[in-house]
Amino acid sequence: MTISYTIDIATTTPLSFLKVILRWKGSVWKNCWKEYTIWVFAYFIIYNIIQHEHVSPELQKVFTNLIHHLDEKLIYIPLVLLLGFFVTFVIDRWKQVITNIAFIDNLAYTVSNYIVGSEEETVAARKNILRYACAAQVLLLRDISHKVKKRFPTMKSLVQSGILQEHEVNILEKGKCGTEKYTTPINWACGLVMKMKNAEKIGSDTLVAAIFKEINEFNKQLQNLCNYDYVPVPLAYPQVAFCVVRSYLAICLIARQYVVENPEQPKPTAGVETLAMSLMTLIQVFFYLAWIKVAEELLNPLGDDDDDFECNYVIDYNITRAVEMAETVNGIIPEQIKDNFKENPKNAKGYSGSVSNLK
């Protein structure tokens, strides 16, 4: 589930940023620490080798020339430009995937209010229309979300959970549905709407069209998710981004070493320069590594990372909401009595005494 931190920044203070930075789950620290630790160890191992007293002057000169040449040529790698485009592209795609996670509320409101009747058959029809929509979503998410696949590993598990009935699973398995199996329950829902229209449980064709519109919107979101999974980011793009960043970091292991130009006459400030060089290199490498890790984590929003979307929550919410709207909430309207605003709406301030200072 995406890590929520908004409550930590509800009030801005000079130190409020620490509440966000010091989090661990889903943080950049958790994503980077292993690879960054390996890089730091490698950097200082190379530093100790280069600065070792037993290294011959000729080899020291070779190291010095190599370091100077690599450091000058690092600018040839367009790292910032490539990372900027790649991360922006991945985040835009991530937002589109999240936008198309379908919630059933609009469809449930429509079905609950447009299909009238308290008879057992009518109530069952309302529930089944919404259940078929939920079943379509689960069938799709099983194919594109690892978490959902682990929860519903087989079609039998859908029967055990009540999302589908055994005879419905038999129809799905015997039919030639292929990868578009999730569209079959949508078709069942549409057919059931027409059955209710013929039974005069829906008042007019306009209401039928309104229900179909919500079903189509729900199905459209499922189709968009299917498209995003079927056509991922072209493989060459992340390959280039990942290789460029790792190549840059590998070159920095040597290119960002501090060298003493004249070992026989060391500078008094050599220690400070070494520290400054190492510190700035460590900071730069961490930021570049964190930047690419952001893209790696968001590349598949329906995966198993801390910040990936919790599809099982959506499934549970939709099923619970569908049953509630189709059965227990249908046709229930509060008794209409005169409100408390009286003649002057300005009298209704809406503040209790304890929070009146929030005005």
Low-pLDDT sequence parts = none
What is the C-alpha radius of gyration, as a whole number of Å? 30 Å
Q: Would you tell me the structural class of the helices and strands?
A: mainly alpha
* Whole-number total of structural domains: 2
Largest sheet: none
Helix content, binned percent? 55-70%
Q: What structural keywords apply?
A:
single chain, 359 residues, mainly alpha, 14 helices, 0% strand
What does this protein look like?
There is one protein chain. The protein is mainly α and 359 residues long. The chain has 2 domains: 6-12 and 24-94 and 235-298, no CATH class; 105-232 and 312-328, no CATH class. Helix content is 65%, strand content 0%. The protein has 14 helices and no strands. It has helices at residues 16-21, 28-50, 57-73, 79-99, 105-114, 120-144, 146-151, 155-161, 166-174, 183-198, 205-230, 236-255, 270-298, 311-328. The longest helix has 29 residues, at 270-298. The protein is elongated, with a radius of gyration of 30 Å. The chain starts with 15 loop residues before the first helix and ends in a 31-residue tail after the last helix.
